[in-house]
Amino acid sequence: MNATILSNNEEHYPVLLNEILSIISPQNGGTFIDCTFGQGGYSESILKFPKTEVIALDRDIDCKKVAETLEKKNKNRFIFYNKKFSDIDEIDYKNSTIRGVIFDLGYSYTQIKDPKKGLSFESTGLLNMRMGINEFSASDVVNKLEQKDLELIFKFFGDEEKSKIISKKIILERAKGEIDTQKLVKIINSVKKKKKYKSIHNATKVFQALRIFVNKEISELIYGLIKTVKIIDKKGLILLISFHSLEDKIIKFFFKNLSEQKKISRYYPEPSKEKKVLKLGTKKPILPSKQEIRINKPSRSAKLRYAIKISNEKNFEKEFLKEFEKLLEIESLSKKL
Ligand SMILES: C[S@@+](CC[C@H](N)C(=O)[O-])C[C@H]1O[C@@H](n2cnc3c(N)ncnc32)[C@H](O)[C@@H]1O
């Protein structure tokens, strides 16, 4: 497993890199879109193959420095856009045939270690959690939304079983003053008793929920998938690495739905079936090896799913959007901010 050396000399291990490379086979050349550039682990590895081109996106402008280095090293073969992947259809890919689109979801180690981003429950200071190109911060959410809205966010985006009491406590505490990261951790700790052998931090679920809400991760993924299927040609690959069950549920549903043959109407005779749009790479997700997990612990929750486009899509969005209507509705509570 190859590590990328970061500017602060720390090593960065792109998750499931060997598996990604063996699926996309960059030795055959072609144009790839790296939707979550981060520290450039995938882009850099793909560009090592001479006949490749990479278009990279990341919503975090802090990635630009690494991207500029790659741009200099790979003139005319690499371009970076500071964009969200839900806007993938806005990029100019100069009519190249896209051979593969890769999403490595979530946030990077560099982002979680950045105290300004306030993604970690170890951060001090204001609640933030914005990865880039956002409309509001976690501080706005925690200090402004009503109790019932907070409860929905913690329950549905974090699967937090104590969402009601935590939200109630937040409302009581914020009457005394603004809630920052450490105050929020304190509130959660006061509600959730510490278990002796608990493997995850008490605040993990609430922090995950806030990060998903602040960065609109549900609609990002949903529209990222819908638009990717539209822009790629037949034989194009879509690969996604997810890190939590909510993301994986969305990807799984999308892949399953588009890889099944459906009757257009029960009144039609047998041959009137909609074509399958995708063919699944594997039925089950690909997981990191024990060796990878040993070297790079955060990879332990990674799941890679991929599919290949086999025909042009019909109107597939409706069913997909309907399935995740409730989550999208919760996400739109942000309109109150
Ligand atoms: C896990 S890291 C990617 C690491 C990368 N594969 C590497 O090897 O360095 C995820 C990256 O995706 C970016 N990101 C998350 N959601 C995004 C979105 N909706 N649009 C664009 N970038 C996004 C984050 O800013 C972060 O840099």
Task: Summarize the topology.
Blueprint: E1 4-5, E2 11-12, H1 17-24, E3 30-34, H2 41-47, E4 52-57, H3 64-73, E5 78-81, E6 98-104, H4 109-113, H5 138-144, H6 147-158, H7 163-174, H8 181-191, H9 204-214, H10 217-231, E7 237-242, H11 245-258, E8 262-263, E9 273-274, E10 278-280, H12 290-295, E11 303-309, H13 317-323, H14 325-331
Parallel strand pairs: 3-4, 3-6, 4-5, 6-7
Antiparallel strand pairs: 1-2, 7-11, 8-9, 10-11
Query: Given the structure, what is the number of helices?
Result: 14
N-to-C order of helices and strands: EEHEHEHEEHHHHHHHEHEEEHEHH
Between the first and last Cα atoms, what is the distance in angstroms? 44 Å
Q: What is the CATH superfamily label of the largest domain?
A: Vaccinia Virus protein VP39
Query: Kindly state the mean pLDDT as a whole number?
Result: 92
Strand content: 5-15%
Low-pLDDT sequence parts: none
Shape designation: globular
What is the alpha-carbon Rg in Å?
Answer: 21 Å
What is the CATH domain class of the largest domain?
Alpha Beta
The helix content, as a percent range, equals 25-40%
Q: In the residues, how many domains can be counted?
A: 2
CATH topology of the largest domain: Rossmann fold
Bound molecules: S-adenosylmethionine
User: How many strands?
Assistant: 11
Assign the CATH architecture of the largest domain. 3-Layer(aba) Sandwich
Given helix and strand content, the structural type is alpha/beta
Strand order of the largest sheet: 5-4-3-6-7-11-10
What about the largest sheet? 7 strands, mixed
